[in-house]
Amino acid sequence: LFLPSFQDLFGVSMVVPLMNLHIKSLGASHTVAGIIGSLYGIMQLFSSTFVGCWSDIVGRRYSLLACILLSALGYFLLGTSTTVFLFAISRVPVGVFKHTLSISKALLSDLVSERDRPLVMGRFNAASSVGFILGPVVGGYLTELEDGFYLTSFICASIFLLNAGLVWMLPWSEENTGNKEHEQGNRGTDGFSAKANCDLHLKSATNGAMASNSLFQTAWIQIAAVLKRIKGIAGSDLWDIFLVRLLMSVAILLYYSNFTLALEERFGVKPLFAGYLISYSNALGVLAGCLLGPITRLYQHNTYRLLLHSSTLTCSLILLYTSALSISMVILSSTFLAFSTTIGRTCIIDLELTIGGNEASGTLLGVGQSVTSVGRIVAPLLSGIAQEFSPCGPPSLGVGLALGAILIMNANKQKYCSHGNVKLKNQ
């Protein structure tokens, strides 16, 4: 799964930086380009929870292969887009089904123990980040060729087809995965875990229906099971975890929203230097993912404490950047921020799965992805308003949101710690 995740982001990051240039070359205005970009985010917002829950019902292999192949179709259509309308159509299958990384994370969560989960997730994120670093370089080179964008899109589609082949050849054992889910369900410590554990019977019924009933009946059973799980999430007490995720996501997005412009206005730094600084931070993020194992052992696998401390560090570093008097202080804050954000991102996923129950990992990761999508929609609006007051307005607002997330974690400390104690006792 590490190789497909690397190739996934490598292929996507080749194409995404070139898309605005391509759609404008087709004659689209800035407004139309923005609307199409927003529609993609909205599709991701509503589809991530549904697709993640669907992977819990039908199994990881079937859902992951379907998402990879339909994403490949989207990028293939992008490579044939000679009009704005075709460009918009090509974004539909990708917007709805590009949840390959979320399903891969859910599969990893099924296969590894709770103790090893932060380490494995950190390495998975590191592998993905390497692809995200290398992709834009290759895409920038290819776009210099004749019809470079179309060539890049076809290469991206081919990478997804290669990933489908790799996933197909994996040594799958759905029965063993289901047994592991059932064992983890017996250790559930939340009301939602109990509801999701009951849905294992629905999964078996669905698999039987796929073999004997019509396609329509199978689809209806799957949709009913998905809606039941989503209802279980809505009625659970996980709201505070998802709120923490939303606040921290928006805080970090606000930090990066006007990063290049703010550096130029505050310190006279050229955009090229800001680009190098962002690439430097991404590279350090990869290193942070590899160091998660020793760090979690240092914290005795207490995910709550590690998340609280990393979030506090993130808040402090954004504040340092906001009040920086020299570019050296910006470099210092960017260096440590790469570590704190990478660790925090992995910890919030681990906490969601620990409290929500690993047997519904696809649903939980899907909801988490929807929460992050909300952040991507809200952050540009807040950033635009904050920049009216000061170049430091967006990160200053981010400090306030991060502080709110820290206060929520402290207010719910007893709940997190009680789950952490259960986790340690079972190990």
General description of the model:
The protein folds into 2 domains: 1-170, MFS general substrate transporter like domains (Growth Hormone, Chain: A, Up-down Bundle), CATH 1.20.1250; 231-422, Growth Hormone, Chain: A, CATH 1.20.1250.20. It is 86% helix and 0% strand. The protein contains 19 helices and no strands. The chain has helices at residues 2-25, 30-58, 60-78, 84-97, 100-111, 117-142, 148-169, 174-186, 191-212, 215-234, 239-257, 259-267, 271-290, 292-298, 303-322, 327-356, 361-387, 393-411, 413-426. Helix 1 packs parallel to helix 6 and helix 6 packs across helix 16. Residues 174-213 and 420-427 have low confidence and may be disordered.
Strand and helix map with partners:
Blueprint: H1 2-25, H2 30-58, H3 60-78, H4 84-97, H5 100-111, H6 117-142, H7 148-169, H8 174-186, H9 191-212, H10 215-234, H11 239-257, H12 259-267, H13 271-290, H14 292-298, H15 303-322, H16 327-356, H17 361-387, H18 393-411, H19 413-426
